[in-house]
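Input.
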Amino acid sequence: MDDDGSSLAAPTIFILVALLQFIPRYLEHQIKSGGAPSDEEKELRAEIKQLLKEASTLSQPSTFAQAAKLRRTAAAKEKELIKWQEQQILDRKSLYDPYMKYVTPVKALTYLLLGVWFWKYPVGSISKELVQPFGEELQPLARRMLSWKSGGGSEDKVMV
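Output.
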């Protein structure tokens, strides 16, 4: 950092906040996706596909009962597959739960520490024209609300 501490303030804050937003989303994605389908899931899907294919070939009135039985069997296999997938999601969730319960407190503590650490240092500047809509009467008030006493700012910029 420079003597005034501002050279790395904005990139550091950006990187830390981006990481704090990315990590929980990554963990949630891992819980939901679960990676490649297992052999058991592939086998169940193949069985369901085969049963439905056989049922579709039996289109004669004399084979209606057999086709209906195959469709019911396929529906039962689909329910079994759904239960199996739900169980896999619960298993994956239990793996990540210890980490997920610490995410919010770590975020809050990090944001608090960033605020304390960079309290004296400006992390950016805003053009005077952007503060202009506050009006001439409110402009000094807006400048005080948005600005730190950083010392080295120019007259046409408001440091934040």
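Residues 77 and 88 are 16 Å apart (CA to CA).
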